[in-house]
Sequence to fold (824 residues):
Amino acid sequence: MTTTTITNEPIVAEPSGFPHGDYLTCDKGWKSWLFTLDHKRIGVMYMLGVLFSFFLGGMMALLIRTELLTPSPWMIRSGDTYNQLFTLHGAIMIFLVIIPSIPAVLGNFVLPIMLGAKDVAFPRVNLMSFHLYVIGMVILVAAILTGGLDTGWTFYTPYSTVVSQTSVVTAVMGAFVLGFSSILTGLNFVVTIHKMRPEGMSFFKMPLFLWALYATAIIQILATPVLGITLLLIAVERTLGFGIFDPKMGGDPVLFEHFFWFYSHPAVYIMILPAMGVVTELIVTFSRRRIFGYSFIAYSSVLIAIFGFLVWGHHLFTSGQSPVATAIFSALTFSVSIPSAIKVFNWLATMYKGSISLKTPMLYALSFIFLFGIGGLTGLFLGMLSVDMHLHDTYFVVAHFHYVMMGSALVGFFGGLHYWWPKIFGRMYDEKWGRIGAIGVFVGFNTCFFPQFIAGVQGMPRRYHQYAEVFQPYMVISTIGAYILGISCLIVFTNLYRSLKKPYDAPPNPWGGATLEWTVSSPPPHHNFDEEPKIYDPYDLEAVVWDPETKSYKHLEGQGLLSDGGENA
Amino acid sequence: MSSTSDATHEAHADHAHDPYLAHHFDDAEQQYDAAKMGMWTFLVTEILFFSGLFCAYAVYRSLYPELFQGAGKYLDTTLGATNTIVLLFSSLTMAWAVRCAQLGQKKGLVLTLTLTLLCAFGFLGIKYHEYAHKFHTGLLPGSHYQAALHQSTEWLEEHGYDPHSHAPVPAAVEQAALAKDGRSYGLFFDLYFAMTGLHGIHVLAGIVLILFLLVRSLQGRIGAKNFTIVDNVGLYWHLVDMIWIFLFPLLYLIN
Fold:
């Protein structure tokens, strides 16, 4: 037995020689990135795409909020422009940012390493998925430039098929291609998790982040194709005069809504489940305790995925669906709160008596629990039939889904980004500014969206260009919150960007995580593991101790192992 | 790019005994299992892709049964049945091709793939003929549907109209027979063209894949040790066949 962990190697990966170089420097030139089959590089490229889109969508959000400072239009004079802005904000944030954020960026990067594998099962498919993402992004942006889109991100018919004069077909094609990209990522993850787990790591010994990605991938595979066919039907309705959703020709627009939400409600869980997975890892690492209720958290991910398919009808409560269906969908909607609450309670129980360190990622994890608590509970208001009659299509709905989509999903992404940043780029960001950014995001977010709950309860309708003067105070507070949020995001990303200017300074395991990605150098070697990896229990935190010599955490020799990489075989 | 090819070479050096093993798999069995599972998962997404259309079909057929009965008559059952047989036969040759690949029989592989390819073209040929006929007779989807165009002399006589008069009555009668609110056979042809069209696109994709296999097998790059790709294309082709097995009775055999 020589060194037991690769973590004892020098912090800075040797730059010389191809097989020993890290994945960032092993090869140069744009082709080595654009056509790479390395899941880590693909993850990094996805990150650039997602952050660019986040910037675009965020700018649109700030424009919308600025316009809403006054009850009557002052900056964006035309209602059509306003409609296009909120539509594109939604479409970009959902299809280009939130859906690919955690699975395609962080999942791509850490999933194979967490499994001790060299890559995902189908590296070429993975690359194709990224290329499709870029193509989809180009098409969607082309739609913006060639006439915009004003249907709302939901593309409701018959407005989208008969009335709208904007580039619906182009936008729909963009979303179709992006859906394909999402399916391929999900497919890759499912096969990788099934077929490439190392010896000793059964399904119930996997890091819970992988359970979350697995459940997400199942939804991506099963739900996205239905969106695909629905979008194609919109395209043929507009171009070839089909009438499947057109009441004039005997078609039924409510059928469209069913099809659309059959994808788009599960899609909500595509967005939130991976964030829950990230938060699970963060809470474990920064509380330094074994996860409480492992199997409950694992099953609850799967349960959320299953329930996610059975509740789409709650988007149609006021669309004229049958009262029986409405009642059933309402009951099923409430049941989603069970697995969600299981997760939250298990996180809290994990933190109980833990030695909590409030590092930047942990601040995001705590924000997540708080914001998801609000976002989830307000969902129950909307699932309640009588209350929904009053609240539907008001700002209450806007606030609710922003608490879940932005406040939970994206905050989870930010947390994960800070957690794995040292691993991905080999550099530590400035902790103080990281925390300021995290707190700023939390404060800005709540200031922006909490007043919208109140405005919504008082009856302020969503998607309106003009509003009654009584709502102005809420709107002004909300806009101030949006600015705080915007500035905080600027702080967050400036801080992260500044770290890239330094030479590598991140130790292999700066936080004390027990999952496998922390046993390799930061950034990881080109093939992830230079030697056959040892497989550790992801939640045996006691086996991971601080090593002052390397300024890094490391596994105690021979402890916390699931299997030793065939050393004793 | 160079890094990937380097990596491949390096991996090949590690596993000199099996040039078909990608570097990130432990052994050929794992690689085969992963590929098969990937394909089956992909087929699941394909089924869900079509399921939207099947669902729309179920909804509208239960809402307007008389519309489907009436419009279904305009499909040519003989051609549909012929196409069913052609596709079933192609599934047989495809399965045979997989067997040939597994046994490393190059000649048999090339022959069965060619037969499959011919069947696929035959299917599309017949489909083209059907489509062309419908375009000419105004049996078009949605807003392009032209009720009066396709009513043959026989139809008119059967419904008691003078085929030589130019009065617009027959179209109105057809609509009235359909019932209430302005629905037309166009809705049926929406579904007909969407379902068979999407299926046709899948047949086209299958042709590309089988051509690819054919080229590879002629180059001798498919053998007993790396037949996975034939296996997977075979699975895809059977799915395309299976979808047609559902489309045929649902569209052609409903009257």
Q: What stands out?
A: Residues 115 and 213 of chain A are 13 Å apart (CA to CA).
